[in-house]
Amino acid sequence: MHIIIDGYNLIRQSDALRRYEKFSLEAGRNALIRSVSLYKKQRGHKVTIVFDGWQSGPVEEERDKLSGIDIIYSRKGEKADEVIKRMVKERAEEIIVVTSDRDIADFVSRRGGTTISSQEFDELMGRTKTAVSEHARHTEERCDKEEDDETRAGAKKKGPSRRLSRKRKSAMERIRKL
Known about the structure:
The chain is 56% helix and 16% strand. By secondary structure, it is an alpha/beta fold. Helix 1 packs across helix 2.
């Protein structure tokens, strides 16, 4: 799975990262890269962060790699949104885009990709590995208990089924992998 992050969008949606950006834009970027690198170590996904360079950026698109994370700075005159859209068009693997920008989210979903809001992803990064494993253990116990209760009840549930569409199911499955 490849996670593409709209860098400045995530910084400005996160309370913790926004504090760093108040000092300087570079401090905000570095704090984001540190947070994402910790998340990457835990989860192992391929991660790319895209930053805007359209107002004062370089003439050519710049690429860098820090802590195993690909970092792209868009060229002068090009927004990060356009770089992300181009990456989604050229995708060769399963992609999840992290952004709260509705235009990008709509584009990604029309192309069959999945998006997650910056706030949701920020919460995911904030969780520690122990919290995630503890949650999984509690969920497992609850599922086992519900299965036992259903087995004892012996009655079928009645009423219309509430199935998700295939598109929604695949999106939920991708998000679960995060």
